[in-house]
Structures are given as C-alpha cells and as structure tokens.
C-alpha cells in the first residue's frame, strides 16, 4: 500500500498551530484514503484528465468524511479537496505560485523556507512542504516531461519550463540543508517599451534615443546584476527592430520572447551522463553566422562565447545585442576583457580593446533599486581607444535625491553630449528635443517622486 507520509500543505497551512492539528490530521487521513483508491484503480487513473481527477477527489473526500464522521465543515472539506487535487494532478504547494502572474521568482531553501519575489521585493511566503522528500517529488514531477533527472548521480539540474520559465535545483549531498530550488518566471506577454516607460524604467528622452539606436543598428550591451531587468529590457528593445530583418537568438536557457515575425531561437545543450553531446553557446553563435542573420542576440554572455559575439558585431551583423552581469559600464568592459582572456585570446591587450571598442556602440546599465523598481542607471557610449584605454562618454545618468519631506526624487540627467557614432548621424535631428529642436540640455530631465 502507498503511504501518505508526505502530505501536502496549502499556502495558509504552513504554520502548524494547535488549532490546525485536527484539520491536518483529517487531511492526512483523506490523502491516505485517496492513495489506496488510486492503487485500486491502477493504470486507469493515469489516463484521467485533471477535471476528472478533481471530480474523483471531491466525491471520495465527501464519502470519506461522512463514513468516518470526521469533524470538519463544508469549507474545510472544499479546501482539502482543492489541495489534494493539486497534489495528485498538479504541482502541489507550488501550483498557485506558478499560475500567479505577479510572482517573478520562487526560491525554496529546504522544505520549510519558501521565498517569493513580487515587483522586485523578496519576501518569505507562508507556504511549506511536509519534508524534503515532498519537495523532491514536486520538482521531479516538473522535470519529468522535460526528460531531465535529479538524483544522487545528477544532483544539479537547470531546465527551461514549458511556459518559458527556468528551474534550477541542487540537492544533497551538494546542498547541505536540503533541496535548493530556484524558479524564474517570465511574462507570457513581453513588456513593450511603452510599458517600461510607464513603470519608470526610463523617461521619454531615453526611450526616443533607444528606439533610434536600435533602428540604426547600433550594437548594444545591457549590463546589470541578477534580477535587474536585463532580459525584460532586451525583449522591449526587440520591439524596435524593423520587421523585415532576420534575428537569431542564442541562449544557455531560452528565456527571450521577442515579439518579432522572423526569429530563430537557439538553445545550448548540456552533456549527457557521460559528458558527451555538449553544445555550447559558442558553438551556436558560430553556427548562427552561417544562417544569414541580420542581427544576433545573445541572451547572456558569461564565457568564451564573448569572442564570437565580438566577431559577429565586427563582421557585418550590426544591431546585435547581448546582456552581461556587471555592476557598471566600466566593470562591463573589464568583464568582457576577462572573458576574452578565458577564451584564449592570443593578441595584445591593445588589440583586444580596439576590437571591443569597434564592436560595441552603447552600454546600458540597468539596476534594481531599494524599493524593487528597475531603472536604467546609465547610458554610456564607447567612443574608441586612447592611451591603451577604452574611451567612454556617459550620455545619461540616473540620479536620486531626498526632498525636504524625506521623500526620494529621481530623474535622468543628460550631459548634453551628442553621440559620437556615425550610425546615428543620419537621425541626429531626431535626437533633439521635439519641442525646442535643440540637443538635450546639460541639466535635462525633471525630478519626480519615486513611487
């Protein structure tokens, strides 16, 4: 007989007070009864739809409570039915979080600590699993249709979910305190530039500049920390790419959802159990250049593929874009140099820096503020190489101050400098203020309260 040792919990049941114990015991008994009935049904149960399973659970729970004369009311009976249906046919305690559009990240630190990020704010969720085995059962259920495994012989896994999200899990013996699971969710409808403008990620002046930079095929690197909004910004910039162009995206785990009619999506492949069959991002970038791309978009540069990305940007694939983990534009350049060294670059530092300067036009630095909001912190242009150093000029900078009431005010400060790149020369007039016809003033921008 199957035993219900790992009885699931609903989001409001995780804190086990004395008053909740009778309800939890009833739910555990109902779960045990259901597993016995499923064992009797055998393979027939596996062919049922979710709706059929829900009806089956409702009927069985109602009959079980009447037969055993259990002390629960109708509302508690419905709650038990809902929880057990999710456990038998869905993803148990994670079901509601996975379907909640407001949830960005789900972080499981062992069975009794679950954290959720909403609007950039990470908070502990009143939800818990019964034990670590319960966590593993749900994670393996998520991974099963993907053909991925998670056990002692393969204690780490990184997988793309069917809805475009990403799951990373690491278990014992590598994770000391139980299973550590990170689920990153992505919007089904990517944010448009106008959406980011409404959210305050940038102002209208920067939006006008970014549109022109993308349309005029400037090469752009989006730099930022973890969960700073790099992928969302990259998705939004893709709305500005002319529809007649062919885009090839290359990613470690496919996360981009470009709203464009001609997109070829490539995803790297991890090796098998014996380490064979690996297809790296670098392999995919090299192959993408043989697929007649107009633009190559690299989801995240984190290794030797940086050299192939620079080659693509320098060999007629203008308008290419990528993201990278770095805390500032200057740190972004240092990281590119470092990754190129790891890739085995054989030339001098000066030749590498000249190649970087000729490949990259702009670096967009994006960050997550203390209140969880994402903001473009800096928009920097690469102007060349001087005295062996890559020369840059900052065109826009995000600034915050406190007013007399202690409230935060923010704006984007323009230095009043016209971009150096000749790619924007044909549209230089469009970079001027639409009302005055003048270049952005040195003190441009208006202060506004941070929401």
Automatic annotation (TrEMBL):
Belongs to the GSP E family. CDD domains: VirB11-like_ATPase (cd01130). It comes from the Bacteria. Residues 429-451 are annotated as: Disordered. InterPro entries: P-loop_NTPase, T2SS/T4SS_dom, T4SS_GSP_E_ATPase. GO terms for molecular function: ATP hydrolysis activity. It comes from Corticimicrobacter populi. Residues 89-366 form the Bacterial type II secretion system protein E domain. This is Pilus assembly protein CpaF.
């Amino acid at each position: 007989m199957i035993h219900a040792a790992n009885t699931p919990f609903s989001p409001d049941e995780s804190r086990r007070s004395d008053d909740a114990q009778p309800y939890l015991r009833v739910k555990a008994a109902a779960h045990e009864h259901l597993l016995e009935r499923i064992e009797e049904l055998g393979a027939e149960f596996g062919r049922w739809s979710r709706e059929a399973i829900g009806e089956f659970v409702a009927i069985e729970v109602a009959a079980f409570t009447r037969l055993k004369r259990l002390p629960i009311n109708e509302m508690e009976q419905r709650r038990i039915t809902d929880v057990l249906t999710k456990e038998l046919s869905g993803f148990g305690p994670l079901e509601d979080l996975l379907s909640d559009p407001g949830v960005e990240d789900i972080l499981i630190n062992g069975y009794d600590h679950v954290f959720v990020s909403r609007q950039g704010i990470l908070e502990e969720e009143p939800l818990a699993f019964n034990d670590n085995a319960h966590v593993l059962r749900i994670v393996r259920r998520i991974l099963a249709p993907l053909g991925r495994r998670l056990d002692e012989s393969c204690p780490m896994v990184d997988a793309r979910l069917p809805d475009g999200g990403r799951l990373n899990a690491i278990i014992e013996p590598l994770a000391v305190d139980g299973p550590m699971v990170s689920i990153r969710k992505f919007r089904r409808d990517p944010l448009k530039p106008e959406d980011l403008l409404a959210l305050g990620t940038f102002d209208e002046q920067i939006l006008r500049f970014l549109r022109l930079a993308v349309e005029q095929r400037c090469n752009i690197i989006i730099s930022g920390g973890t969960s700073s909004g790099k992928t969302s910004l990259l998705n939004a910039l893709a709305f500005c790419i002319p529809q007649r162009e062919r885009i090839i995206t290359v990613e470690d785990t496919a996360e981009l959802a470009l709203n464009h009619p001609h997109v070829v999506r490539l995803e790297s492949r991890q090796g098998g159990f014996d380490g064979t069959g690996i297809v790296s991002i670098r392999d995919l970038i090299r192959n993408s250049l043989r697929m007649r791309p107009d633009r190559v978009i690299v989801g995240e540069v984190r290794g030797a593929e940086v050299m192939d990305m620079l080659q693509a940007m320098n060999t007629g694939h203008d308008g290419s874009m990528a993201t990278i983990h770095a805390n500032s534009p200057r740190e972004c350049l240092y990281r590119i140099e470092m990754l190129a060294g790891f890739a085995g670059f054989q030339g001098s530092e000066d030749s590498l820096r000249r190649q970087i300067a000729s490949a990259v036009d702009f670096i967009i630095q994006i960050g997550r503020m203390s209140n969880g909001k994402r903001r473009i912190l800096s928009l920097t242009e690469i102007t060349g190489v001087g005295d062996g150093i890559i020369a840059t000029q900052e065109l826009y900078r995000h600034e915050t101050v406190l007013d007399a009431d202690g409230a935060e005010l923010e704006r984007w400060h323009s230095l009043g400098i016209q971009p150096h790149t000749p790619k924007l020369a044909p549209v230089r007039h469009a970079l001027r203020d639409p009302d005055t016809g003048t270049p952005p003033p040195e003190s441009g921008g208006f202060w506004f309260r941070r929401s």
